[in-house]
Amino acid sequence: MADSLPPTGIPPGVLKQIIAQVTNTRTSRTCELALDFLYLYDYLTTLDQEVELMWFKPMSFMKVLFFLNRYLPLVGGFVNASIFLDESPTSLTASVRGHWFKFQIGTALAVLGIIQAILVTRIWAIYNRSKLLIVILGIFGCLQLAASSTVMGISITKGVPSSEPGPGFFVCTITTPPYFAAYWIPILTFEVTLFVLTLIRGVENFRQTNVSVLSGKSAQALINILVRDSVIYFFIIAAVYAGNAAVWYWADPSLYQSSSVFGIMVPPMVATKLLFNLRQSFGEETTLKPEDQELTAFRARVGTSSSGLRTYQTHSVGGDLGQWEEWGRNCLS
Question: Which residue windows are transmembrane per the record (predicted)?
Answer without folding.
Answer: 64-85, 105-125, 132-160, 180-200, 231-250, 256-276
